[in-house]
Amino acid sequence: MASFIPRTLPMDLHAKFYLVGATLFLLVGIILTLTLRPSSKGNEESPSAFESFLRFFYASFLKPHNGDGTGNGQQDALESFYKAQAGVYDTTRKRLLRGREDMLGLAAAQLVHKSDTEGTHDVKRIWVDIGGGTGWNIEAMSEFVSVPEFFSSVYLVDFSPSLCEVARKRFARLGWKNVKVVCQDARTFRLEDHEDNTPDAVTFRRSSASNYYAEDGPNVGGADLITLSYSLSMIPDFYSVIDSLSSLLAPSGIIGVIDFYVQSIVDLSCRNYTGGAINRHVNWFGRLFWRAWFDVDRVGLEPGRRDYLEYRFGTILGADSRNYLLGSIPYYMWLGCSKKPTSLNTPNYPHEIVDRLDAAVTESPYLSPVNHTQALSRTVESSTPPELRSKAFDAAIINLSANLPLPSFFYQNHHWRIHYDDQLKKHTQFKHEYIYAFTWEDSRVDNRLLKLGSEDVVLAITSAGDNILSYALSSPARIHAVDMNPNQNHLLELKVAAYSALPYADFWKLFGEGRHADFRSLLISRLSPHMSSRAFQYWLNNTHVFMSSRGKGLYETGGSRHAIRIIRLLARTLGFRTQIKALLSAKTLNEQREIWAKDIRPILMSRLLNYLLVSQEKFLWAALGVPPNQLAMIEADHLHPAPESTPSPSSSPPLSHSQKKPNSTRGQAVWEYMAQTLDPVIDSSLLGTDNPYYLICLHGSYTPRCHPDYLSPQSHHKLSRTPAFDGLRIHTDSINDVVSRLAPNTLTVAVLMDSMDWLHPCDEDPSSSSSANTQITQLNRALKIGGRVLLRSAALVPWYVPVFEGLGFGAKRVGARIKGSCIDRVNMYASCYVLTKIRNLPAVDSNTRARGGSVDLEDFEI
Ligand SMILES: C[S@@+](CC[C@H](N)C(=O)[O-])C[C@H]1O[C@@H](n2cnc3c(N)ncnc32)[C@H](O)[C@@H]1O
Ligand SMILES: *[C@@H]1O[C@H](CO)[C@@H](O)[C@H](O)[C@H]1NC(C)=O
Ligand SMILES: *[C@@H]1O[C@H](CO)[C@@H](O)[C@H](O)[C@H]1NC(C)=O
Ligand SMILES: *[C@@H]1O[C@H](CO)[C@@H](O)[C@H](O)[C@H]1NC(C)=O
Ligand SMILES: *[C@@H]1O[C@H](CO)[C@@H](O)[C@H](O)[C@H]1NC(C)=O
Ligand SMILES: *[C@@H]1O[C@H](CO)[C@@H](O)[C@H](O)[C@H]1NC(C)=O
């Protein structure tokens, strides 16, 4: 008995799944039948929806497909599956095989981008669609490019004669002469068997899969695009087909795959090359259920198919989604390219790409590929001190030696975004949400204080990216945008991609109004070639930010939405909505002051409100991004106001902190802080025309009259040209980590916003990366003499200014909010400082850090 049970249990389970599946399917089938619209044409290629479904259902679940007995292996089985439903194939698959247009759009976008940047508009391309079935995809591609003009030849390779027949009819109807239907096993398809009519002796690589690593020398020809749309899962010998892709693919060609899959996130935990894993995990029930279900139709969903693809090629983009119509079947889209740069017996190539990226990230010397010899690259490796290597470099070297693909960031079209490990707690703590949808720092004042030039190397906190973009308008040599929160950087990437790919009207809709009804299709067909895989995934999962009809657009997302919502709520409940409108349309400062003083201030600033809402630490943190340490500084200033006449930072002692202070002062301190923030702003700038920072909070979107400078048509004109962002590097890390990896004496400007306020003043441990001492020492090392640090603080005299002065900086307070004056249009901070590096610190650490970099810099100025 005991031995009997285990043997039947798995079968039982399987049978149960099958039954559950079949029942569900019937239900879904009914939905499908009801939602399918009969085609208006009504010819034999589009039979009625009900008939379609019956035939599909019969072929999929009732008809035994063991072949017709001629013993022709897979073709037999395929044919027995498809023969009965070839005619209804397209009608029944429209919804089942979802996402095909998206994959085609992504692939087309890459090809169009390539032809734009390489100026190869006239060059014709080759496209191979493996398992192309009825040719539906090839016809659907015409939504993105004109198939007869864009491609010189298109090969549809399919093993099922009856589907090939449908395809032939389709292309005869369309009159597309460049499409060739090849009824053949994908394992044996070779391009050179078909492209032999090219006159100039195109040398296709005949390399078999086994000598893949020998692919060097000038490779001419090959497919520029290979697609597998829901066919990889139907090919039993998928290893052989995937291997054959690398010899089929042109050196700069791309592969597009869409298919069903199931996978547990556990499989991926040690991989850094997948390009993000948003939604990739499928729970255990889904994994069992969908595999068992698809097994019936000989469709293999096991993770290995996708894993092998990702291992054999470099990942450009990947995204996971669900087909909800049929009960959330998981599917993925993937774009890949040859992982060639890792090929180990082409000595210069891998070093070149790695060095180039490394140089880009760390401000170490860049060696041109032409001058680049192996000896030189070895010197770089041995001479640059290890801590000056970028993290991207570390990842690349380890994965190179393990013969793995490089992280997906290396295969992207732009090298803006630097690789980071998204599994680290310091990044996951943000829970896929950005805090700032807009930046609360006055870029006009920054520009006046900094006066960036073409020589400047700037490091700044990303936030929402607004200020990064405003710095980019001065075209400094390099901008390092740094943020620990990956989602802030995703937002910046989106903005940069939008400059690169969209006309001003769309750009304005996205970031001026914060809404765009076509965001998803723009993301796929225009923005995707300019984004990293992770940013793309993020926005694909969050298209509702711009598109939701219920939502209020970009500026009511992220942590700062709470502030806007509270203002809206207050305005409604306390009934001063019309007054706010009046405030925003005030023509003169006097008018504005009057409305404020008479109608709004008394209500908004009522102490009751303050106690209920504003003094809540939790609220402040979420809505304004005020961390506890900063709150403590505000309180300290409230209790011990700095002497207004002598605001010399060095003379006043570091202010004490109020851990022990009674709570009642907290509310008052914050109230006073708010009053000092708002009153002078109302007094000195017209909100409706000149103060986008308050306009966005009160209005929820910008207006053509009033917006940050990065949103103007002139800025768009300037930043949409190609070299505009060549110097941009987006780091997802702490400032300290980035600064410590920069080559010494290279940085000229560091904009820290209020981030120093977040540090804890008692953290004196010099080894801790969060101590002010460590950060300032690192900044000193990275900055040139004369290099500047710009920062703002909630305190009039922040406790860390003397620390700067002790570590080689001269401090100057360039703005202070004293007696009703404004430091800028935001006026959120009490003071603004510029700290200039006046001397190098003695090399305290006797290790390589201080010595190495500058010496090497000279060595390599060849
Ligand atoms: C689910 S259909 C997808 C058809 C089409 N790509 C689409 O998206 O509508 C899978 C296709 O893979 C084809 N196929 C399966 N094994 C194959 C093989 N070894 N060689 C070529 N094609 C194959 C089948 O004939 C079938 O047309
Ligand atoms: C090699 O480098 C030098 C100095 O950087 C440069 O002037 C020269 O043009 C380079 N050679 C080539 C072939 O690019
Ligand atoms: C790829 O490189 C990273 C970076 O060091 C490493 O952590 C990771 O384990 C490597 N991947 C594999 C599969 O070894
Ligand atoms: C790669 O991923 C692993 C696992 O998440 C992680 O431990 C490792 O630090 C990562 N390496 C890099 C360079 O991101
Ligand atoms: C993806 O979108 C869903 C629904 O909007 C959300 O719950 C989830 O957190 C998102 N995931 C990421 C990684 O953004
Ligand atoms: C002040 O508030 C904190 C929580 O916000 C509480 O833990 C603490 O006991 C309070 N102190 C006094 C003196 O009320």
UniProtKB/TrEMBL annotation:
The chain crosses the membrane at residues 17-36. Coiled coil: none annotated. The keyword Membrane applies. It comes from the Eukaryota. Keywords: Membrane, Transmembrane, Transmembrane helix. Pfam families: DUF3419 (PF11899), Methyltransf_23 (PF13489). SUPFAM superfamilies: S-adenosyl-L-methionine-dependent methyltransferases. Residues 640-663 are annotated as: Disordered. Signal peptide: none annotated. PANTHER family: BTA1P (PTHR47473), METHYLTRANSFERASE DOMAIN-CONTAINING PROTEIN (PTHR47473:SF1). This is Protein-L-isoaspartate O-methyltransferase.
